Amino acid sequence: MPATPAGEPLDDPRGDAPPCRVVVCRDCCCGSRKVRGVDHAAQTARLRTVAPVRISDCLDVCDQANVVVVQPSAAGRAAGARPVWLGLVNDPAATEDVVAWVRAGGPGVAPLPDILGLYVFSPRARRDGDRA
Fold first, then answer.
1. Gyration radius of the chain over CA positions
2. What residues form DSSP beta bridges with 53?
3. Are 25 and 35 in contact (CB under 8 A)?
4. Whether 67 contacts 86, CB under 8 Å
5. pLDDT confidence of 126, banded at 50, 70, 90?
6. Would 81 disulfide with which of 30, 55, 72, 97, CB 3.0-4.6 Å?
7. Average pLDDT over every residue of 67-83
8. Rounded distance, CA 103 to CA 106, Å?
9. Which helix (H) or strand (E) holds 56?
10. Nearest one of 86, 90, 65, 64 to 20, comparing CA atoms
11. Strand partners, 71
């Protein structure tokens, strides 16, 4: 059974299929006291129960804090899926919606739930010296 880098088993009902991956921004705005009322550690821990999670420095979309990027699995990429950027993931219900979608297979494998469509955004092109 797949496991997180810390060795905890992933909640993966599809067996040994490599799961999609999750990137969580945790820098100047995301994961900080600037986003109030969010247990950032609990959010990251919950996401780690269904997929490997990478903690990122600033993704330069601070107006969307907290940002979660769901990267497709190999099967999702084979189906043509691209990473899905989710912004304002600031409450446990939103985190659970992400968890359910990732558990179902994520981008390219499972349809994006309508509720998560409210969180999807396209990151702007990065420019040298440009910070939000």
1. 14
2. 22
3. no
4. yes
5. low
6. 72
7. 97
8. 7
9. strand 53-56
10. 86
11. 21
Q: How long is the chain? A: 132
Residue 122 one-letter amino acid: S
Tell me the longest C-alpha to C-alpha distance in the chain.
Answer: 44
Cβ neighbours of residue 5 closer than 8 Å, sequence gap 6 or more = 52
Q: Which of 108, 63, 110, 118 is nearest to 86 (CA)?
A: 118
Reported for 117-126, long-range contacts at CB under 8 A and 24+ positions apart, including other chains, are 119/86, 119/87, 119/88, 119/89, 119/94, 120/84, 120/85, 120/86, 120/87, 121/61, 121/64, 121/85, 121/86, 121/87, 122/85, 123/59, 123/60, 123/61, 123/85, 124/60, 124/61, 126/60
